[in-house]
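SEQUENCE-TO-STRUCTURE ENTRY
===========================
Question of interest: how does this chain fold, as expressed in C-alpha cells?
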Amino acid sequence: MELNYKKIAEDIIANVGKDNITSASFCATRLRLMVNNRDSIKDADIEKIEGVTGVFYNAGQYQIVLGKNVKPVYDEIIKLGVTAL
C-alpha cells in the first residue's frame, strides 16, 4: 500500500503546530523541524502517524524518522506553507 504523503504532512503539521515550526529540512531518513516550543509536542501522537518510525530532539531540531519516505513528505510540508531551511 502506497503512503499518502500529503496526509502524513498534514498530520505532522497538525500535531507539531504550524505556528510552532520555524523551518524544515531533511536528511537521508529524517524530517528535521526547527520548532519554537519542543515541550508542546507530544511524541506519542507523532509516532502514531502512518509512516513515522520514531522521533527525537537533537541539536535544536525536532527530528521525525520517515526512512525512504522523507523526501516526498518534506515536499508536501513545503507545499503546505512551512519554510524550507
